[in-house]
Specification:
Blueprint (H helix, E strand, L loop, with lengths): L18 H4 L9 E8 L4 E6 L5 E6 L22 E4 L6 E4 L5 E5 L7 E6 L3 E7 L6 H14 L2 E7 L7 H9 L6 E4 L5 H4 L11 E5 L6 H9 L24 E4 L5 E4 L12 H7 L1 H7 L16 H8 L4 H47 L1
Parallel strand pairs: 8-9, 8-11, 9-10, 11-13
Antiparallel strand pairs: 1-2, 1-4, 2-3, 4-5, 6-7, 12-13
Cofactor: Zn(2+)
Keywords: Cytoplasm, GTP-binding, Hydrolase, Metal-binding, Nucleotide-binding, Ribosome biogenesis, RNA-binding, rRNA-binding, Zinc
Protein name: Small ribosomal subunit biogenesis GTPase RsgA
Length: about 375
């Protein structure tokens, strides 16, 4: 780390430490809790307070829990925002604490793996702009991710000056799910940014997500009062931006909150977030429960409450299509990853049997 943020830290609570994490420590625990600030291929940066309450920053080896030998379940890898316990002798992480929340997605392409995005986040700022980047389907994906993780989502609309009717974008965003908070602001104006401060109090962790070029870096620069993050313009033909953030990283606000910037993610493949999808599409789910048949496909079946709502004009057929698409994608990705884990579990058992058989053969 180049900036000694630890000089601004006086207690673990400043880093987001709560009773939830404290309750996981043994009574005679000597290990020092530390929060993961960034993760790289061969190292990770952590920050914490030692037994003497002296804050520290250090770089250690990446940490992953070992697989469970009994059921073959995979171990968890530490990601940005996690809390780990550092061994008092080696100074390396030796235990990963349970999380209050975790964001993950299926990796891009055909690989059957999950990618961790961040852990222990309190609020998710979903940033989009009032231009061609505004995409209802993508926003619903982010909201499903937040709802499943139990994290409060806030939609932030930027670049309202680029359109003659910014309120149309605001109304579309507010209609995505009941009670969603939408803030429309100029990312360069500190006075307008002040509307975000209620979610940015001491020890709170806020993550930013959104496509490249929507103004996340400008927002963070304004919130921190610095120009530490490079910004770039957008292409005029499609309003798409260039990546300026290349890795997940924490920034501390004067208010004591932690901001987590993430690289622009246009491809967000959902996995194992069915509860989040149901929460975002609660209106469709409620209608489906009133269908005559429990296995109704909402197409031509008699007594379908969903198609009746479409015919009555109270449900947009495009919303039904997006719900189906996300639900099918989540189901496919979840099953695919589960199959991979099952295959790995079977392979490990086979290796274990083979080793045992060889040992018995040698003993005989």
């Amino acid at each position: 780390m180049t900036t000694r943020i630890s000089t601004q830290i006086s207690t673990l609570a400043d880093l987001g430490w709560t009773n939830f994490f404290l309750s996981q420590l043994d009574a005679d625990e000597l290990a020092a809790p530390a929060r993961v600030m960034s993760v790289h291929r061969t190292k990770m940066d952590v920050m914490g307070c030692g037994p003497d309450q002296v804050p520290f920053e250090k770089t250690i080896m990446p940490f992953s829990e070992p697989d469970d030998p009994d059921d073959g379940s995979p171990g968890r890898a530490a990601t940005v925002g996690d809390w780990v316990l550092l061994d008092p002798v080696t100074g390396q992480a030796h235990r990963l604490l349970d999380r209050t929340s975790v964001f993950k997605r299926k990796v891009a392409g055909h690989e059957r793996k999950e990618q961790l995005i961040a852990a222990n986040v309190d609020t998710l700022f979903v940033v989009t702009s009032c231009n061609q980047d505004f995409n209802v389907a993508r926003l619903e994906r982010y909201l499903a991710l937040a709802q499943d993780a139990g994290v409060t989502p806030v939609i932030i609309l930027t670049k309202a000056d680029l359109t003659d009717d910014p309120r149309d974008y605001e109304q579309q965003a507010m209609g995505l799910m009941p009670g969603i908070v939408v803030e429309m602001l100029d990312a360069r104006d500190p006075d307008q940014i002040a509307s975000l401060l209620p979610w940015c109090t001491t020890g709170q962790t806020v993550a930013f997500v959104g496509s490249s070029g929507v103004g996340k870096s400008t927002l963070i620069n304004t919130l921190t009062g610095q120009d530490s993050i490079e910004t770039a313009g957008i292409r005029e033909d499609d309003a798409k931006g260039r990546h300026t953030t290349t890795s997940r990283q924490f920034h501390r606000l004067a208010s004591g909150a932690w901001l987590l910037d993430t690289p622009g993610m246009r491809e967000l493949q959902l996995t194992d977030v069915q509860d989040g999808i149901d929460a975002v599409f609660a209106d469709v789910v409620a209608l489906a429960e009133d269908c005559r048949f429990k296995d109704c496909q909402h197409e031509t079946e008699p007594g379908c409450a969903v198609t009746a709502a479409i015919d009555a004009g109270t449900l947009d057929p495009k919303r039904l299509h997006r719900w189906r698409k996300l639900a099918l994608e989540d189901q496919h990705n979840t099953q695919t990853i589960a199959e991979r884990r099952s295959h790995e579990k079977s392979f490990k058992k086979m290796v274990k049997r083979t080793v045992a058989q060889k040992k018995r053969f040698r003993d005989d």
